[in-house]
Amino acid sequence: xxxxxxxxxxxxxxxxxxxxxxxxxxxxxxxYFANHSSNLDAVVIWASLPPDLRELTxxxxxxxxxxxxxxxxxxxxxxxxxxxxxxxxxTAEANPLVDMLSALGDRHSLIIFPEGGRQxxxxxxxxxxxLFHLARSRPDVExxxxxxxxxxxxxxxxEFLLVPLLCSLTFGAPxxxxxxxxxRAFLNRARSAVEDLQNI
Length: 200
Known about the structure:
Layout: H1 2-14, E1 17-20, E2 30-34, H2 41-48, H3 51-54, E3 57-62, H4 63-66, H5 70-79, E4 83-85, H6 96-104, E5 109-112, H7 130-137, E6 142-149, E7 168-171, H8 183-195
Parallel strand pairs: 1-7, 2-5, 2-6, 3-4, 3-5
Antiparallel strand pairs: 6-7
């Protein structure tokens, strides 16, 4: 019941216009990778998925943010089944890639934000290497670019009150790591795949 309420709130507040421009919803394992400008980003992508896919899709989120209160921790653990990663001081013993690969398993999908932290600039930041390592480790998983438009104005960084506005969510065509493609080339291409969805 709480999941359904959260989905309804997310859709009402954002008025998200959802476009499946390059693919259709599918139960196939996927990594949805998107631009990041708001704390609502993962919630809105998760809420935009059909219920059966929502149950199999886990947002990757910052542990320090989602453990600040009992409510956030409850939502992360019990509602979103989020993969909480350490972004401040990751170590060999706390490698986020290990947690993400474990969370994928043989049936789940992930939502990730390769820029790392939220961006205040309209320009996307360079992608960090996690997406490349996931693509190399799990070539069987589809990599689906997602562009989120206008969501940063609904919940700006540092604010707590929602401002109802319309946002857009566009799912693009899956990409994959090409044979012999190096990390920098792949990450630049992945970033362009998200940016190009702004014009659809």
